[in-house]
Amino acid sequence: MTDTLTNTPTTAPLLEVRGLSVVARVDDKERSITTDVDLVVHAGEAVAIVGESGSGKSLTARALLGLLPRGVTATGEVRYRGEPILHLRGRQLRRLRGEEMTFLPQDPFNILNPVKRCGEQVLEGISYGRRRGSRDATRSEVARRLAEVGIDEPRVMDSFPHELSGGMQQRVGIAAALARDPQVLVADEPSTALDVTTQRQCLDLLGNLRESRQMALVLITHDLRVAFSTCSRVYVLYAGSVLEAGPSDALAVEPLHPYTRGLLRAEPPVDRRAETMEAIPGTLPQPEEVVGMCRFAPRCAWRTDACTSHEPKLVEVSDVRATRCVRVDEIRDDLRARVTSSGADRIVPAEIEPVAAEALLEIDSLRVVYPSRRGRQPVVAVNGVSLQLRQGESVGVVGESGSGKTTVSRCAVGLTPFTAGTLRLADITFEPERSPGRSTRRRIARVAQMVFQDPYSSLNPAMTIGTAIAEAAIYVPDDERMSPAELLEQVGLSASYARRKPVALSGGERQRVAIARALSARPKLLVCDEPVSALDVSVQAQLLTLLRELCERFDLSLLFISHDLAVIRQVVDRVYVMHRGLIVEHGDVGRVFDEPTHPYTRALIDSIPRASQPAIQG
Amino acid sequence: MSAIQLSADDEVAVAVAPAARRRSARWPASVIVALFVLLIVVGSAVLGATLAPFEPGDTDLAKSVTMPGSENLLGTDELGRDIFSRLLVGTRSAITGPLIIAAGTLTIATALALFSAYRRGWVDQLLGRVIDTIYSLPALLVAIVVVGVVGGGYGTAVVVLTLLNVPQNYRIVRAAAIEQRGMPYVEAARSLGHSTTRILVKHLLPNVMPFVVAAFFLRFTFAIVELSSLSFIGLGVPPGASDWGRMLSENRHFLESNPWAAIGPGLALVFTAASANVLGLELYERFASRGRAR
């Protein structure tokens, strides 16, 4: 069946997976991670496995190379050039890895051995099982390999990983992975930890390498845009099962599964402020919660009894496409219509600024310098930033990591002392070089509250949700105070969450609680530092919608920090673009994003992967 | 290149997480035994004097050094005192001292550690240096000298051992607190305007509790041995008192005629210390697996 799911049905597939099930064994109990996954990869082809957290995409990739962690086992059939490989051990497995298939792990900052020079790490792979040639010969070979991944500077060979940027480390990692000229490269979220501009380069590099080496690429990603722009075919994984498979260009315009459509719709558009953001309701299930039915049924708008009575099979719809949706024939037009209609959304103009409104936050020539440590240069994180935020206004700060955007936001709530400049929040004037004392912090707390990036660590794990929310309100006068139940309802959670502890909540739910806690202090300004970047796409949109609603309902001002231009466009009126501690451009979000005047802003916008870009054909 | 990165992988974390959760559902046999032993120890510490078949101090030279029998379960010592009764009554001094030491040490160490981890800067530096200086003193040796020179017996020994063991526990708790201190939930508490005391007690303390509990039991275990060592060399408890260390020391002279007079208190010490250790480890794992911030 899956043989037909390819662009080139005549040749035998290079890698073929049938009925792959990954199971974790925990205390003599089995937990299903994936069930019945079918994949086909042809020689030289780029294939993406797309899924949100818990979909089993990473473990599927690891299973292909026998890299599953202890206690996790795979059953089913994995054939490489027709030979079954799942049972391979020891020397045979090692020959398969590296020589035939190779794996590029997730985090670019940890893929290299920190105590070995980069050249050695590439050489290690090249000379594996062979005699090393002369010093000059090996050095020139390593240099050639590094040049292949776009590193022309010979000094990199003699550098240690920590001396290189994340993007460079990743390149060295790729060179090392390809040292033995494998036929398949499995890359696990290669671009996720990188900045947008570097991300683009990384994806381009992988695409070029695939082409020049005629090597197959299996790209694991959570981002449909990344998948579409790099791969010719996409498998959509959800809760451990493939829900849809097909060519990128077809999937992008005509999804054949409600989940794919939901993912496409949940992606915020970068070219406009969507009037309504359509999120997939609910949260990601654990695979065992959705056994014996369509895995997506509990969150699906088209659900019928047929969807929940049994688990549907992956059915081919055409030569190249397959879906697990049982109602695909009935709702096909519906799915397509809803995707294309997204372009017709009315463009919501950024609200007209209330000119008379007084500035709530006024930052002028702010400088933050971290003192030198052990003979190193002092780090200038923020180098003269001026920013105004008026009452009731939503302002965004966008930039890459290291741009200083987070530092500015932390200064605004007094978490980081600044070195020079002036900072005024409502009637509180901050003093440079000093952390505010308790009474000042209390005054700040009544004006500004922060929502942090990582919902997993921003809630005290030892405290129940109710206590955490109630505790935030202890300095609020009685007549303004809101009960935890009320606040939970405001952020879309039931009051019963008050008794739970953070560990029992999903990422999206935790972030809602973090927002409720911030609101509990009844602030005028909400400072959000990358509030949705740790969340899955299908949940992101829910949070952005919530933030918009809350700002309106509570008459809140918003200072929104993000690296994601599409996200920031959805929530703010004005935007500041930061680069290396400086603001390079600011203005109305529509103007800045549509007609950028600064080359850096231009570069940022250009590096966003777009689903509409033609997929590289394999 | 192909090294597996467990921490970087969400799915792996999801797959492995319930292990910790389910682990706490049942008690391992070793812990049940340890609990049982500690129950007996605490029981005899409270009720020892009433349960003892003989007055622990009653001498009967006619029965000097007898083997275990139906009347004297573990035999008698040189002065004809009942070993079993003395063992029971001795439980109290065997565990109250260590309990006070463990509680005292951990209270002081935790308070200082949380404060300096949270404050950082010169407060942390200064405290650290003072703590390091104290750390360089050998606790047991100092205790021997102080108790030997100044006198004051058991109470003095407890005070000295409490104070001199603060450093290592301070370091354990401080390391744990520093890890937590950088967490956004602590910053959230700061930006909510909470006082330092509140942040320390309500936010940091519950999250370093696993380490405090583990350190408490470890300290308790060592304190049992340390106090018994002092008694063994004749310091601490007054002569004639029922004390395990003292009994061990006095009764080792007639091992041939009644070995149980020395083995009894020896075993009591070993079982108590080992049980406390086993229970401490289990509690640590339970605390640690319960609701950590990822």
Question: Quick gist of this model?
Answer:
Among the domains of chain A are: 2-100 and 182-251, P-loop containing nucleotide triphosphate hydrolases (Rossmann fold), CATH 3.40.50.300; 359-605, P-loop containing nucleotide triphosphate hydrolases (Rossmann fold), CATH 3.40.50. In chain A, 32% of the residues lie in helices and 22% in strands.
What does this structure look like?
The complex is a heterodimer of chains A (618) and B (294). Chain A has 618 residues and is of the alpha/beta class. Among the domains of chain A are: 169 residues, 3-Layer(aba) Sandwich (Rossmann fold), CATH 3.40.50.300; 247 residues, P-loop containing nucleotide triphosphate hydrolases (Rossmann fold, 3-Layer(aba) Sandwich). Chain A contains 20 helices and 22 strands. In chain A, the strands form four sheets. An eight-stranded mixed β-sheet of chain A has the order 6-7-8-3-9-10-12-11, sandwiched between helices. In chain A, helix 9 runs parallel beside helix 11 and helix 15 packs across helix 16. The longest helix of chain A is centred in the first third of the chain and has 18 residues. Chain A is globular and about 70 Å long. Chain B has one domain: MetI-like (MetI-like fold), CATH 1.10.3720. Chain B has eleven helices and no strands. By secondary structure, chain B is mainly α. In chain B, 46% of the residues are buried. The interface between A and B is large, with 67 and 41 residues.
Name the shape of chain B in a single word: elongated
Roughly how many Å is the radius of gyration of chain A? 26 Å
The largest sheet of chain A, given as strand count, sense and whether it forms a barrel, is: 8 strands, mixed
- Low-confidence spans of chain A: 1-9, 340-347, 612-618
Structural class of chain A: alpha/beta
Number of helices of chain B: 11
Q: Can you name the CATH architecture of one domain in chain A? A: 3-Layer(aba) Sandwich
Shape of chain A: globular
How many strand elements of chain B?
0
Q: What is the share of helical residues of chain B?
A: over 70%
Mean residue pLDDT of chain A: 86
**Helix amount of chain A, in percent?**
25-40%
